[in-house]
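User: I'm new to structure prediction. If I give you an amino acid sequence, what do you actually give back? Let's try with this one:
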Amino acid sequence: SVRQGKFHDFSLDLDLMTINSCFDWKTVRSQIELMEPNSNSKLPIIVVGAGAVGVATALALRRRGEEVLLLEQFFIGHQRGSSHGPSRIIRYLYEKERYTQMMPNAYKLWTQLEAEQNVKLNTKCGILNISSASRKNIYTEILSKNNLKFTDKIDDLPVKESEEFGYVLEEEGGVLDANLCVRASFEQFLKLGGKFMDGFKLKDFEDDGTIVTVNSEDGKSVQGRKLVLACGAWAKKILAQTGVEIPLEIIKTETSYWRVKPEFSAGIIDVNNQETGDIYHYYWTPVKEYQNLIKISYHGTYRDEVDPDERDDPEKDSKERAAKQLEDHQRVIEMHFEGIDSSNPVIVEPCMYTNTPDNDFVLDVHPKMKNVFIGAGFSGHGFKMSPETGEILANLALGEEIGYDMSFFSVKRFEKSP
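Assistant: Good question. You get back a string of structure tokens that encode the predicted 3D arrangement of the chain. For your 418 residues, that looks like this:
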């Protein structure tokens, strides 16, 4: 049967502060003191990559009083990586306990940033998890263990119920405004005195044991005490230059927007079927970006590995993959929901994934350079916890204690690594 109802009304939380919160980047740029080579007697910690993780790391370091220089090959808010767009899911629930443990601090840091920048970043709306009955039991056990609110009563939710699937609603789930999150973190970094340079495309770097020298492709050079690499889809190429072969899979993925009926109302929906021959993992976010269009993305199902510098080459796109993707989208929509026009997506937007074989992050010191640190391989689920990941990378760079088992994130877990 089809149940039509509402999650938390998403529109109620889109207040004028959020809608009108657009930073004047020309003004911001005029206030930035660009760091010239060797201009500071106290060399900074350099962070390369101004996506969600890089900016969070730079902010974490600056909050501790460190001199920080943040470098970006494009510009803040660009759409070439993995941190752009109006929506990312935030949730506590993970089958891997290590991520559930990281989320309380991530939530606190997002809330702190909202207060510091007077901007709304997280909208609570609930996440409906649709999975096999056995996986549902795993979900409810994790949620119960961590004292998280949930319900398996879905009488008012817009789904086609089936005995084949299990349903559990995580009440604390929500949507982060990704663009605003990165911008707010960047603005707070600048407010605290952080330094920033855009248009700096990394060529190479070296660590002499005391000073790290970082060079750009157009001949610029900066020096620092430490270097944190948060290079997203470019991490594999950059690390390979230093003899570190991490098995990162660089994927060009797509987010699509599908037309819904005006009365259609839903929060976040995560459809994860791994137990049968028909394997798929999709998620929906509420109607937000475009009127009467719902965002639908797949997680890890399709594989078009690309060079991030050549991702727009039409010869690199697989027509067979695109056709299979559309067919699967339509089938999953029709299987689980009514109220969505499954004929074709209205808008399709690209995004990059950087996957590890085990879908765990890489957070570690460079195997050959003691003053270089790596944040990579976030495997499509790193945005929500990026503030806490930034804290971990800051701790690594400063040699401070980390309250997590870091073996899961070690470079050494990959056989090809030195």
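You can read the tokens as a compact description of the fold. Here is one thing that stands out. The chain has nine helices and 20 strands.
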